[in-house]
Design a protein that fits this description.
Chains A, B: It comes from Allonocardiopsis opalescens. 2 copies of one chain form a homodimer. Chain A has 101 residues and is α+β, with helices and mostly antiparallel strands. Chain A has helices spanning 18-29, 31-34, 65-72, 75-85; strands at residues 3-12, 40-45, 56-62, 89-99. Helices cover 35% and strands 34% of the residues of chain A. Chain A is globular. Chain A binds chain B through residues 4-5, 7-9, 11, 42-47, 49-50, 53-57, 59, 65, 68-69, 72, 91, 93-100, and chain B through 4-5, 7-9, 11, 42-47, 49-50, 53-57, 59, 65, 68-69, 72, 91, 93-100.
Chain lengths: 101, 101
Amino acid sequence: MAGVRHVVVFNWTAEATEEQRARVVEALSTLPAAVPEIRAYAFGPDLGINAGGGDFAVVADFADESDYLAYRDNAEHRRIIDEVIHPIMASRSAVQYRLAD
Amino acid sequence: MAGVRHVVVFNWTAEATEEQRARVVEALSTLPAAVPEIRAYAFGPDLGINAGGGDFAVVADFADESDYLAYRDNAEHRRIIDEVIHPIMASRSAVQYRLAD
């Protein structure tokens, strides 16, 4: 079945603390249990292998566009974005693409 | 085993043609057979669900950092970047993160 993959790369602000970055990981870790439409979910801070990279990435897989939209608009997801991510977000680059499987 | 996931979001130039964009898909499709270190590889153009998103994303999984570096520096991969991607690339945002599995 062809799914939809959501990919997002974040850059944090220079002022973002380690505690604030860790809160993003903690908060996102709760989402697979809270959002039944999530098929696969993996995220993490940049390992620092390359200079000039982003700071954090999320990859989320869904059965279809409708399930992706349910995740995008999920109330707990929006709360995390507003309260945990936006305060330290400098920029964001996202794509949704068709996943052949 | 904990792997390494490479995530990259591209924005193409306003001048990029459909043919040039299609050549990126064709060229990247050859890489899993050419680069034995690739464990999983999926990419595609943005579906246009959200306004203001990137144009194209690649997600590539590797067993470890060494295998990611072999992919990053693979000669055929570099050729595709130089000849097919760079001519239409406006910007690029990439992260490598630890994949727990």
